[in-house]
Amino acid sequence: MAHFGMVGLGTMGRNFSLNVADHGFEVCGYDRDEAQRTRLLQEGDGKPVSIAGSSAELVQKLQTPRLIMLLVPAGKIVDAVIDELLPQLSKGDILIDGGNSHYIDTERRYQALQNSGIHFIGMGVSGGEEGARFGSSMMPGGDKQSYELVKEILEAVAAKAPDGAPCVAFMGNTAAGHYVKMVHNGIEYAVMQMISEVYCLLKNAGFSNTELSELFNDWNAGELESFLVEITSKIFAKKDTETGADVIDLILDKAKQKGTGLWTSESALELNVPIPTIDVSVSMRYLSSLKDERVRLSKLYSHQNKISSIDKAPLQNICRDALHFGMMMAYCQGIELLETASETFKYDIDIKTVIQVWRAGCIIRSALLRDLYNAYEKQPDLQNIIESEIFVPVLKEKRGSLVQFLKTSMDAGLPAAASAASLDYFDAYTLSRMPANLIQAQRDFFGAHTYERVDKEGTFHTEWGKN
Ligand code: 6PG
User: Fold this and answer.
1) Given the CA of residue 181, which atom of ligand 1 is nearest to it?
2) Measured by CB atoms within 10 angstroms of the end CB, which terminus of the chain is less buried, N or C?
3) What's the pLDDT score for residue 76?
4) Got the DSSP string for 246-266?
5) Which residue puts its alpha carbon closest to atom 9 of ligand 1?
6) pTM (predicted TM-score)
7) Where are the alpha helices (DSSP H) in 238-311?
8) Whose CA is nearest to atom 11 of ligand 1?
């Protein structure tokens, strides 16, 4: 009898299953596609891995209480798999949805299974294929009792932080796990976008792909150390086996997306939490996809200039610090959103625990998360990292570089929208008097929406048209 059942044997499901088997747990995998089942058997040769030809067979082959994880595409398929399994399960069995499910779906599924006696855990899994195979960062949510039942196995297969701690922990109630994963992806979008903006400027300033690869490699040895910077260095060095050209130059400049960034922005808008760096990163992906229009319109304007007379050494330092500043703002916005969502949806998320789980295995793992962890350790009641004792001096020091980076990009006609949004977010958040008084006046002028005053309490209206 197997300890662990997996439904969905695509790359993620297969790799996760092999990882579980490597830790001594007997795994049984099921996928409708026979070819995927066969692949698991082949790759799991010599490991405690078996397959089932149907969901009924899977259910029969598992020890009770059964532990079944789903790694199938988010959306209707998750519901279909749950509906198929449910009548075959017994009280006490545990279902883990490990896909990138929308948190509202997870909330619905959690509530629907509440009185069924089946434990339901919505769990974000980050780290891609490699993470699934050798240790991902996992963000389970639902209820604490259910998590305790699967803790041992999840801790065994999770990525390990530098201090050896497993990168998995209970994130919070109901859909908290998938909410945290969604915000992780929002931050992922923002950091990727800002890296691409730095690339855009450096490329146009004449850096070769080899130089870029070396530069990102150097950056990865310092304060920008992160998975995304590390893979960026490797990307610039990769040659196409067919043509010998750099692969990066052969890739069409249209960024695709599966929706988690959009969901983050949607939720933030609903909760009134400003996350402009993430919002604009989603929009820039849409803009990138308008390739035909961009090519057509580029012929009408010629504002894009090559930056020739620039010293490479100072430029690369400006870019490094601008990216560092932008990354801090991306994490800051994500954490603010998590704080508000936790309060609104009663998730009871502990930010320090989230940071701990993101320290290894996931796509946004970075040295910065170590600083963030220390910031929360030092000031457990920290409202916003902008006021952290650790971050204040760094933000003060790097802001000038971000400004320089933006000026240079703008002069060259190169968009750097997410980096600009990071600066604006910071500047607005640290500005004691914003021009919103004028917006209030305009609202009151055309709609009698009233306003508050700085000199006395109450709600006021002015007859703007009268003398
Ligand atoms: C992860 C990634 C993973 C996936 C993204 C890609 O944490 O391992 O975030 O979940 O690669 O969903 O998202 P887009 O297709 O939307 O870029």
Assistant:
1) 7
2) C
3) 97
4) BHHHHS-S-----SHHHHHHH
5) 185
6) 0.97
7) 247-250, 260-270, 276-289, 291-298
8) 128
Q: Which atom of ligand 1 is nearest to the CA of 188?
A: 9
State the amino acid at position 298 in one-letter form: S
Alpha-helical segments (H) within 103-219: 103-113, 128-134, 144-157, 176-204, 209-219
Task: Specify the DSSP class assigned to residue 366.
Answer: B
Q: Distance from the CA of 25 to the center of ligand 1, in angstroms? A: 27
Asked if residue 314 has a cis previous peptide bond (ω within 30° of 0), the answer is no
Instruction: Tell how far the Cα of 10 is from the centroid of ligand 1, in angstroms.
Output: 15
The Cα 224–Cα 218 span in angstroms is 9
Which atom number of ligand 1 is nearest to the Cα of residue 100?
10
Percent of the chain that is helix, strand, coil (3-state, to 5): 55, 10, 35
The residue annotated as part of the active site, out of 107, 188, 197, 336, is 188
Please, what CATH class does the domain formed by 437-467 belong to?
A: mainly alpha
- pLDDT for 308 equals 66
CB 84 within 8 A of CB 76: no
Average the pLDDT over 306-334 and give the result: 92
Token match 């295995």: residue? 361
Q: How confident is the model at residue 74 (pLDDT cuts 50, 70, 90)?
A: very high
Give me 236's structure tokens.
């610039």
Calculate how far, in angstroms, residue 101's C-alpha sits from the geometric centre of ligand 1: 12
Predicted confidence at residue 167, as pLDDT, reads: 98
Q: 266 catalytic, yes or no?
A: no
- Sign of the CA dihedral 396, 400, 401, 407? positive
178: nearest Cα among 260, 256, 113, 115: 260
The predicted pLDDT at position 114 comes to 93
Is the pLDDT score of 221 beyond 80? yes
Catalytic residue among 76, 84, 181, 266: 181
Give, in words, the CATH class of 4-174: alpha beta
Q: What is the pLDDT of residue 186?
A: 98
Query: Whole-angstrom distance between the N-terminal and C-terminal Cα of the chain?
Result: 86
Ligand 1 centre from 128 Cα, in Å? 7
Query: What is the tens place of the pLDDT at every residue in 94-150?
Result: 999 999 999 999 999 999 999 899 999 999 999 999 999 999 999 999 999 999 999
Active site residue 203: no
The CATH number assigned to the domain with range 181-429 reads 1.10.1040.10
Handedness of CA 114, 119, 121, 122 (dihedral sign): negative
Residues near ligand 1 with C-beta < 6 Å?
A: 100, 126-128, 185, 188, 256-258, 260-261, 362-363
Q: Whose CA is nearest to atom 17 of ligand 1?
A: 257
How much distance in Å is there from the Cα of 130 to the middle of ligand 1? 13
Q: Which of 258, 285, 362 to mutate to test the pocket of ligand 1 (most atoms within 8 A of CB)?
A: 258
